[in-house]
Design goal:
It is built from eight helices and five strands, in the order E-H-E-H-H-H-E-H-H-E-H-H-E. It is of the alpha/beta class and 192 residues long. The chain has a single domain, classed as Rossmann fold, CATH 3.40.50. A five-stranded parallel beta sheet has the order 2-3-1-4-5, sandwiched between helices. Helix 2 packs across helix 4. The radius of gyration is 16 Å and the shape is globular. The two termini are 20 Å apart.
């Protein structure tokens, strides 16, 4: 069984991934050491070079005016592709924030349907048997979880930016989920 969890910060991805891993007796893909991360990034590039270049270009185009943000997004990209590289060697896994989560990380603007074409193409070529669990949670619960953590995603770029980013990804979630549900037969909403 191959599963990828997608959800906004505070939606319960980590909690649910641990619970599902135990229930289904499957491993959560995890990259511990930096050398392993680099190794699996190279594996991804070798097997999916076309997608590597497309996404790298997209990240650059979307973020070229802010070097700090560009660097952060390249780091997030490397995290996702290292997990994808590791997934090439397993038939039984769970990914918490994999490749299909990248639209939330890359775009700091409202997503349009055509922005997701690359991701749908990747899924159809590389992940056909993977179940996408799209986590849905009430907004007040999500915000309470974020407050309890003591940090808001992207707060390193300023509190105004972090609040604006949270607003944008909330809008983008609706677009991404609608497009994924329409185009991916293994995509399912999971109320958490």
């Amino acid at each position: 069984m191959k599963i990828e969890l997608i959800g906004l910060p505070g939606s319960g991805k980590t909690y649910l991934s641990k619970k599902k891993s135990f229930e289904l007796n499957i491993n959560i893909l995890f990259i511990g050491k930096k050398i392993c991360k680099y190794f699996f990034c190279v594996i991804f590039c070798f097997y999916r070079f076309y997608f590597f270049v497309l996404i790298l270009k997209l990240i650059y185009v979307e973020n070229k005016n802010n070097k700090k943000l560009l660097s952060h997004k390249l780091y997030l990209f490397s995290e996702c592709i290292s997990l994808e590289g590791k997934a090439f060697f397993s038939d039984n896994y769970l990914i918490d924030q994999g490749f299909m989560y990248l639209p939330f990380s890359i775009f700091d603007r409202q997503i349009k349907e055509e922005d997701l074409a690359i991701f749908l193409n990747y899924y159809n070529k590389s992940c056909k048997n993977r179940i996408l669990l799209l986590l849905e949670v009430e907004e007040n619960i999500r915000q309470n979880r974020i407050r309890k953590r003591g940090r808001r995603p992207r707060s390193a770029f300023g509190s105004d930016y972090a609040l604006e980013f949270d607003s944008i990804i909330s809008f983008n979630k609706d677009v991404v989920y609608r497009i994924y549900l329409k185009n991916i037969k293994n995509a399912k909403i999971f109320f958490n």
